[in-house]
Structure formats: C-alpha cells, structure tokens
Hints:
Shape: globular
CATH architecture of the largest domain: 3-Layer(aba) Sandwich
CATH superfamily of the largest domain: Decaprenyl diphosphate synthase-like
Structural class: alpha/beta
Number of domains: 2
Bound molecules: 3-methylbut-3-enyl trihydrogen diphosphate, magnesium ion
Number of helices: 8
Amino acid sequence: MDGNGRWAQSHGRPRLDGHRAGADSVRDITRASRQLGIEALTLYAFSSQNWARPAEEVMGLMTLLREFLIGERSEILDNQIRLEAIGDVEKLPPMVKEPLDELRTASAMHTGMTLTLALSYGGRESIVRAVREIARDAAAGTLRPEDLDVDRLTGYLPTAKLPPLDLLIRTSGEQRISNFMLWEIAYAELVFTDVLWPEFRKEHLHQCLEVYAARERRFGLTSAQLGLDPA
Ligand code: IPE
Ligand code: MG
C-alpha cells in the first residue's frame, strides 16, 4: 500500500492525512476481497524499516492502526474474517498490540477470509528468524540438515499457514518489492499500478484481478505441458 504521502502532498495536506485516507482504502479493499471470495488478503501496513520515519508519523500510523482494529472489529467478526498479523509485533506499542491480540483471538476460528496485517514486517527479517529457528532445531537434534527442503523452510516462515501467494499488487507507480514476502513471491504474479493507495478502490482491485487472470502461470513448465497451447 504505497503512495499515501504523495497523495497528501498533491492535495497540499500533511502526510498523516494521506495515511488517514489510505485507511479508507483498506476498508474498501478488505470488503471487496471478502465479497470476491478471496481466501487470503495480506496488507503491508508497516515495514521493519518504517520505524525510522519521523516519530510523529510513526505515532500517527500507530494511532490509525488502533482506530482500524477497534473500528473494524465488528465488521471483521460479522463477516467471518480471521485477522492475523505477521512481523515483529512485539515491537508494537500496547495501544496497538492489545486490540490486535484481542481481535486475533476473537476471530481465530473464522474461515471466511484470512486478513493478515504485515506490521513491523520485513521479508529478510522473517527469513532471518526462520533460519535462526532452523539452526536451533538442528543444534537440538530435532532437524537433520539433509531433511531441510523448500517445504520445510516454508514451514518456518510466518506465512506458513497462508495459501501460496498468487498475486502481489503494488500501488503508486514504484516497481520494487521493498522487503515484502521475499520468499513467498517466487511464483507470484506481480502487478504494478500507478494509482496512489488512497485512491485505490474496488474498481482498481477488479482491474488488477483481470490483469492477473490474463497471465499464463507456468511454474517453470511449458505451455504444452500445462495444456495451454492453442489447438
Ligand atoms: C505507504 O505510503 C504507507 C506506509 C508506508 C505506512 P507512504 O507513506 O510510503 O507514501 P509515499 O511513498 O511517501 O507517497
Ligand atoms: Mg512509500
């Protein structure tokens, strides 16, 4: 979700107004995804690196996160959404951590859609954590190095319980990954749109899904193998 700051700037408003407008997009996209029957939606809300932004902006973002968790609580529960979080959530202030934990617990049994917030999240940081645990298990003798493979490593990542990543959308015209789901994007389709996040609404999501649907996903195979060649 990128472009909040530029959206605010283009309207001559403080950056935090952009984040506030971005929160409206979060609501709209979450609702639209649920309606579309998307199994899992993960929102990159705050990166490990975002902590280094000005304290005032970090504080503002934390306040908005709290407002989202409290304000959307009933809609999340009413719509059978399971709320999850990935990232170093221990770093979050109690005003965010508490409503986050509460909603995770309250929605844990829901099966409608998994909404995951990436908070204090970094793809590299996630891999480091996984590797640290792998090393610990190897040292403890519960994991033999020769048994480690792609699936095993995947199991150590915070996204292990999510379905494979199909589509990654980045808004605001930037064409980079910025430390998001580095392992998980291996065969994901990437869609970049110039729309700034505060203006990204369900119509734009539908457009991105159309782009996605037109892609041929081969996973390293040939079209013929997949029966995708024109007759
Ligand atoms: C994304 O918008 C929101 C967060 C990172 C929390 P930005 O704040 O990165 O917006 P730009 O890139 O300055 O426009
Ligand atoms: Mg940005």
